[in-house]
């Protein structure tokens, strides 16, 4: 069974792969745009994202799976950017893998589905 740190590392590695594949949308506006075009498959919301950051996702968050990810700083570093509160994933395979890792039940306090943060 993977530890919380291992799960975080896998999430960050998969986000890095998605970035290199051009399969991410960074920030609320890009995520909304990907959702409107039908390309959005998953949203990773940083564990320390503000309530306002979650609200800015709006309808995009209602229409796709949202999972809690690592911190804004960790996500930003993995993507070679400043801290990032939300990342949309447009590749179905990567989204499925991320959802499986990020929503693993029983990972003590680790990344889990962030459905409660929607809205």
Attribute tags:
alpha+beta; 6 helices; 119 residues; four-stranded mixed sheet; 60s Ribosomal Protein L30, Chain: A
Descriptive account of the structure:
The structure is a single chain. The chain is an alpha+beta fold. It has one domain: 60s Ribosomal Protein L30, Chain: A, CATH 3.30.1330. 45% of the residues lie in helices and 14% in strands. It contains six helices and four strands; from the N terminus they run H-E-H-E-H-H-E-H-E-H. The chain has helices at 4-20, 28-36, 51-56, 59-62, 72-78, 92-102, and strands at 24-26, 42-46, 65-69, 86-89. It has a four-stranded mixed sheet with strand order 1-4-2-3. Helix 1 (4-20) packs antiparallel against helix 6 (92-102). It is globular and about 35 Å long.
Topology at a glance:
Layout: H1 4-20, E1 24-26, H2 28-36, E2 42-46, H3 51-56, H4 59-62, E3 65-69, H5 72-78, E4 86-89, H6 92-102
Parallel strand pairs: 2-3
Antiparallel strand pairs: 1-4, 2-4
Task: Provide a compact summary of the structure.
The chain has 119 residues and is of the alpha+beta class.
Counted by DSSP, the helix tally is: 6
Helix and strand succession?
A: HEHEHHEHEH
Distance between the termini: 32 Å
Main pleated sheet: 4 strands, mixed
Q: What would the principal axes of the Cα set say about the shape? A: globular
Give the amount of beta strand, in percent.
5-15%
Total beta-strand segments: 4
